[in-house]
């Protein structure tokens, strides 16, 4: 007896997979789900149960027994097929033939599962020989031993691979409960299922997608690696001195060192201290940092967090810390503006310890450097510290390979065409190299360094501005140098067609709806969460409560918290860290909303802490309640108002659109702004209470706990409808 999947068995016995699974549980046979295979012995056990159950309905046995015999005659040509196939065919055919013959059928089925197909075949052979069917010898081609596929196959393709007619495959699918057309794409499961029916092995070929630039970012052998300069990003709160710090470093170190050199703004620059280089990314702020990271480019090795000594830790300081932590990038704190009389570096340190940045003097491992970006004081020290940290980090690359890296910025220059600043992250980039950058390609025509000088090559951690691309790439895009121009062009063009944006949208982001699936498949061990709330107290309460959620196998990691509306920067962080955002009494602003839609970031808005906790917890356990979607059902224009003592304000209205019902929710809209949302108290037509009033009719409405209705207001009625989860 061959193996069979649970759902097939259930289907053959007109019962649910669930019931079969629970029956198996009772028999102490462990199975995971309806796709699990059960062996012959288990089938027999189940058969025994089901036949026992249906004993009383043997009446139709005789009738149904004929059907399969006839069928088998027709299919005699398939004599060489394995047992499993035969079994499924049988049960399928039988189902089809007997329709709802019910219990008798099942009983017969159960028996048939126990009889030896071998005998049957013999019998059939005899039949065949005896009768010599007149039909042309439709000898089916041999089944292959194994078929291979990549990603999916259409029914027609699968049929061809199996040397079978597409109609036969369609029939099999139909018997398995799938209605398919000849051009239908079959997924891996379906292909395996059909192939197993024929006893044919299946092998999925995983193709390396040549157009995926990430695949070229391979590791080097240890002996090929050499020390490379660190790449540093400066972050901090508005006006704390990020730009001044970058300028200060550039002017003291670049201009002075390179006589006559004028620093070019190419998005990044390098300085040299005691013969060692440091690369600074010129766009300060964590937004750029995280946007790049969201696009897959992690270029920063070290973050310098600038905090003004006279101002202390501010919201964006915290954001910057969390962005750096989420990217796992070490932080050096530059306590700026120490020249100011009001400067209080101690306070900065004190405040930052709350965020885990404990100074070395206090037993921690965070380096603090007091600086004045304005006067230049402490800048040397800061640079030394950067070199120190980079030594600890052991930053290395292989200069002797074809260059790989990321785009820092790009633009279209009127005279020179597309211009891109590239950061070489590994290998060495040469003039003339065939290159693919994002979804653009070309040959490196000219290279200019941060001092505006033409260079012929650029090694690891070097920023260079290049020309020679066919189009303008985007910041954060990856670049890869290829062996020859033809390959570069092919891959570049293929990538262009793939529409990078569309591809990005498709990448599976985590959402509460899909969380359980991913947990189940072992794809996730940690759920990253960003918490935004209206007041600090709620942030803390919610964070603490989230961290207490205990579901086996998953940790909740709160990667960022903050007070105030959900911003684009939150969404970027969520997108880069595959996190979900919980908003407590706050809303995303317009930009954040848009960004969340394109980046497919799941934002959950709540007004009650335990509801937020409950939602996450049930999502982790795969028990999310049904989702409701608001549906606006009508609009009422307020044409008059009446004040009635003890009742309040009654709105005399006219239904201009749809309808309003007694139990719908209602929103009061004045000049386009929602000023109140609540429930209807009474709904009347003349003096009578009514359940609903339709378009074109007048009505009288009072709203629960709201009396400020004015003439000209629009009342919007809505209901909450349950929607199926995607
Ligand atoms: N006294 C003093 N003023 C400083 C120092 N560093 C920066 N400033 C001043 O602080 C102000 C803000 O400096 P920026 O460098 O523009 O700050 P930023 O962080 O880049 O600001 P955004 O780009 O707006 O986020 C400017 O007026 C600077 O002159 C410093 O070390 N000492």
TrEMBL record:
UniProt source species: Weizmannia acidilactici
NCBIfam families found in the cross-reference section: IF-2, small_GTP
Gene: infB
UniProt entry keywords in alphabetical sequence: Cytoplasm, GTP-binding, Initiation factor, Nucleotide-binding, Protein biosynthesis
Subcellular location: Cytoplasm
Protein name from the UniProt record: Translation initiation factor IF-2
Chain's role: One of the essential components for the initiation of protein synthesis. Protects formylmethionyl-tRNA from spontaneous hydrolysis and promotes its binding to the 30S ribosomal subunits. Also involved in the hydrolysis of GTP during the formation of the 70S ribosomal complex.
InterPro entries assigned to the protein according to its UniProt record, in alphabetical order: EF-G-like_DII, EFTu-like_2, IF2_II, IF2_N, P-loop_NTPase, Small_GTP-bd, T_Tr_GTP-bd_dom, TF_IF2_bacterial-like
Bias-annotated ranges (Basic residues): 119-129
Entry keyword annotation includes Translocase: no
Residues at which GTP binds: 236-243, 282-286, 336-339
Coiled-coil region: none
Classification of source organism: Bacteria, Bacillati, Bacillota, Bacilli, Bacillales
């Amino acid at each position: 007896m061959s193996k069979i999947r649970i759902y097939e068995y259930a289907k053959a016995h007109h019962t649910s997979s669930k019931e079969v699974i629970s029956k198996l549980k009772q028999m102490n046979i462990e199975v995971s789900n309806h796709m699990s295979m059960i062996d012959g012995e288990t089938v027999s056990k189940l058969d025994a149960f089901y036949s026992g159950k249906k004993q009383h309905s043997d009446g139709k046995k005789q009738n149904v027994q004929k059907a399969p015999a006839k069928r088998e005659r027709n299919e005699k040509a398939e004599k060489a097929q394995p047992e499993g196939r035969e079994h499924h065919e049988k049960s399928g055919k039988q189902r089809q033939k007997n329709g709802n013959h019910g219990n008798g059928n099942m009983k017969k089925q159960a028996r048939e599962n126990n009889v030896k197909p071998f005998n049957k075949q013999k019998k059939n052979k005899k039949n065949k020989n005896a009768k010599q069917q007149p039909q042309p010898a439709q000898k089916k081609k041999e089944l292959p031993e194994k078929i291979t596929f990549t990603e999916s196959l259409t029914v027609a393709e699968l049929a061809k691979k199996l040397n079978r007619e597409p109609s036969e495959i369609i029939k099999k699918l139909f018997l398995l409960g799938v209605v398919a057309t000849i051009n239908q794409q079959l997924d891996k499961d379906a292909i395996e299922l059909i192939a197993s029916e024929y006893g044919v092995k299946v092998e999925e070929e995983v193709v390396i997608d040549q157009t995926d630039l990430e695949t070229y970012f391979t590791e080097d052998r240890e002996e090929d690696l050499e020390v490379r300069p660190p790449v540093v990003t400066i972050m901090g709160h508005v006006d704390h001195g990020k730009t001044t710090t970058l300028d200060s470093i550039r002017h003291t170190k670049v201009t002075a060192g390179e006589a006559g050199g004028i620093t070019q703004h190419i998005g990044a620059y390098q300085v040299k201290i005691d013969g060692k280089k440091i690369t600074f990314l010129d766009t300060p702020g964590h937004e750029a940092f995280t946007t790049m990271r969201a696009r897959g480019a992690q270029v920063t090795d070290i973050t310098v967090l600038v905090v003004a000594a006279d101002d202390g830790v501010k919201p964006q300081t915290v954001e910057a810390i969390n962005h750096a932590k989420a990217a796992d990038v070490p932080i050096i704190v530059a306590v700026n503006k120490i020249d100011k009389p009001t400067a209080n570096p101690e306070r900065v340190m004190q405040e930052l310890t709350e965020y885990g940045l404990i100074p070395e003097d206090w037993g921690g491992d965070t380096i603090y450097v007091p600086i004045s970006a304005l006067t230049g004081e402490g800048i040397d020290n800061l640079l030394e510290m950067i070199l120190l940290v980079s030594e600890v980090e052991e930053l290395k690359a292989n200069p002797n390979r074809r260059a790989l890296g990321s785009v820092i910025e790009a633009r279209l220059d009127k005279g020179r065409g597309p211009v891109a600043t590239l950061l070489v992250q590994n290998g060495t980039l040469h003039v003339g190299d065939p290159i693919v950058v994002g979804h653009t390609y070309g040959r490196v025509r000219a290279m200019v360094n941060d001092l505006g000088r033409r260079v012929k090559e650029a090694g690891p951690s070097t920023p260079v501005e290049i020309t020679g691309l066919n189009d303008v790439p985007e910041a954060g895009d990856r670049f890869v140098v290829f062996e020859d121009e033809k390959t570069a062009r092919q891959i570049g063009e293929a990538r262009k067609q793939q529409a990078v944006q569309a591809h990005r949208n498709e990448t599976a982001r985590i959402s509460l709806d899909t969380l359980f699936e991913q947990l189940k498949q072992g794809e996730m061990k940690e759920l990253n969460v960003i918490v935004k709330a209206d007041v600090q107290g709620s942030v803390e309460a919610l964070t603490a409560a989230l961290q207490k959620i205990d579901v086996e196998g998953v940790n909740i990691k709160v990667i960022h918290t903050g007070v105030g509306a959900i911003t684009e920067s939150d969404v970027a962080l969520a997108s880069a860290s595959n996190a979900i955002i919980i908003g407590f009494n706050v809303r995303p602003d317009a930009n954040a909303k848009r960004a969340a839609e394109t980046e497919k970031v799941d934002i959950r808005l709540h007004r009650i802490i335990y509801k937020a906790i409950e939602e996450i917890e049930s999502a982790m356990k795969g028990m999310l309640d049904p989702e409701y979607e608001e549906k606006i059902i009508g609009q009422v224009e307020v044409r008059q108002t009446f004040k009635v003592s003890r009742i309040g304000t009654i709105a005399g209205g006219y239904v201009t659109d749809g309808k309003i019902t007694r139990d719908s929710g209602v929103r009061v809209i004045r000049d386009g702004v929602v000023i109140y949302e609540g429930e209807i108290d009474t709904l009347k037509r003349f003096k009578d209470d009514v359940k609903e009033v339709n378009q074109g009719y007048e009505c009288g409405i009072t709203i629960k706990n709201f009396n400020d209705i004015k003439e000209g207001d629009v009342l919007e009625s809505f209901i909450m409808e349950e929607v199926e989860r995607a």
